[in-house]
């Protein structure tokens, strides 16, 4: 399998690689231009000892990973009766989750969300007269 990668490099490609590298193209772009894999480019650049560039190009090939939340909210699939079913987010959005904290006995929500549910329903009863 490594043979394939090695044989990819002929004089012409090596010349191109050096040139493109010098021009500051990203590894992905060089790979695309030369028709080789990113790994092949990385390996070759490393072996050739090409100078590191102050690349104006921001590494864009790494997907941005959002930081994990402290809570680990649940999806519909892993919710059960003993977990708080307070909805978090927009129910129409794919990010929609449940709170998932331990519930207060006899209630569908955790302590915090019980309080929230209670307070708001009290307000509703006083504020809005429902006929
Ligand atoms: Zn909750």
Polypeptide structure, described:
With 131 residues, this protein is mostly helical. It has 5 helices and 2 strands; from the N terminus they run ααααββα. The chain has a two-stranded antiparallel sheet with strand order 1-2. Zinc ion is lined by residues 84, 86, 99, 101, 109-110, 112-113. Zinc ion binds at residues 84, 86, 99, 101, 109-110, 112-113.
Number of helices: 5
Secondary-structure-derived class: mainly alpha
**Order of helical and strand elements:** HHHHEEH
Low-confidence stretches: none
Which strands sit side by side, in order, in the main sheet? 1-2
The beta-strand count equals 2
- Report the helical percentage: 40-55%
Beta-strand level of the residues, as a percent range?
A: under 5%
Q: What is the first-to-last residue Cα distance?
A: 76 Å
Q: Please state the average pLDDT score.
A: 77
> Please, how many domains?
2
Largest sheet: 2 strands, antiparallel
**Radius of gyration, CA atoms, in whole angstroms:** 28 Å
Heterogens: zinc ion
**What's the shape?**
rod-shaped
Fill in the keyword field for this structure.
binds zinc ion; 2 strands; 2 domains; 42% helix; 131 residues; rod-shaped; 3% strand; two-stranded antiparallel sheet; mainly alpha
Quick overview:
The chain is mainly alpha-helical. The protein has helices at 2-7, 11-23, 27-34, 38-48, 111-127, and strands at 87-88, 97-98.
What is the element layout, followed by pairings?
Blueprint lengths: L1 H6 L3 H13 L3 H8 L3 H11 L38 E2 L8 E2 L12 H17 L4
Antiparallel strand pairs: 1-2
The structure holds zinc ion.
């Amino acid at each position: 399998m490594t043979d394939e990668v090695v044989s990819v490099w002929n004089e012409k490609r090596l010349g191109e690689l050096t040139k493109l590298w010098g021009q500051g193209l990203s590894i992905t772009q060089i790979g695309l231009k030369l028709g080789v894999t990113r790994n092949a480019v990385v390996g070759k650049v490393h072996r050739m000892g090409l100078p590191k560039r102050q690349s104006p190009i921001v590494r864009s090939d790494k997907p941005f990973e959002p930081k994990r939340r402290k809570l680990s909210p649940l999806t519909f699939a892993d919710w059960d009766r003993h977990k708080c079913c307070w909805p978090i987010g927009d129910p129409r959005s794919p990010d929609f989750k449940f709170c998932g904290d331990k519930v207060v006995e006899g209630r569908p929500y955790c302590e915090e969300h019980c309080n929230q549910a209670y307070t708001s329903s009290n307000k509703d009863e006083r504020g809005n007269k429902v006929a």
